[in-house]
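Per reviewer request, we include the raw input and output of the structure prediction for the construct analysed in the revised manuscript.
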Amino acid sequence: MSLQNKSIISMRDLKKEEIELILDKAEEMEKKLKKKEPLYSMKNKILASLFFEPSTKTRLSFSAAMQKLGGSVIEIEYSTTVKNLVDKIKMIENYCDVILLRHPREGSARLAAEISKKPVINAGDGSNQHPTQTLIDLFTIRKLKGKIENLNVSLVGDLKYNAVVKSLFYALGIFKANITLASPPELQMPWENIEEVRDKFSVRIFQTNSLASAIEEADVLYVCGIKKEKFIDVSEAEKIQKNFRITLELLENAKDDLIILHPLPKEIEIDSRIDETKFAKYYEQANYGLPVRMAILSLVCG
């Protein structure tokens, strides 16, 4: 099985075996990083980092991953038009071996992969997909829980507009997890996404507006923020943010071995007091970004 020259656009494009290949490779990368072994699989290779909207964490993480593998990075300033996207892809493919793309429009990464001669890695296309973050999430869950299958995973927060949580939702279906979707009524997971995962993978999916219900039986609590810019009424957004956040009090009935994950950076959706508890694993999750993205780059074009 090989991912050589394969674009990573959506979790829908990856078979379970391919996901496991990436996770296994990430384990290998993590061990080599700890031993400070020299890594040269990307020597003389170039990553073109093309961001049409800012995303410091993803951009820096991939840049560090590429350099750790002995490669180099060229960064292109962001713009917003699709025409600009097509022109830039056709131009920069001549100067690189792999393209990292973030764009606010859904489907932009798919378009780029269709027109590019070089593999494209989707770093987020609007509210659609963010597969590399999901691979980090899966790696973290497997690392901390020993498995993904049959775990009770609760996805909490903005499930309507957040690309990260939509990618993870689909991936959890692949691994047959039991999934709880907890959100304010205004931010529920789109019905077409629920139908797709339920029909394709025959997994248990439970919807609720109650954080207490989402936490009670969860093995994994995955929290994503609620963005004010998604609301016309900012005061309404602030009210929802305050009413839909994870507090220490809510964790009183949680499983003793619950882990809380978050793609970071977080705002008020998780009480800061939780950062120092045994439940908080989001900083450890962030650390796994480097080996996972090294694994992706190595498998796609190493």
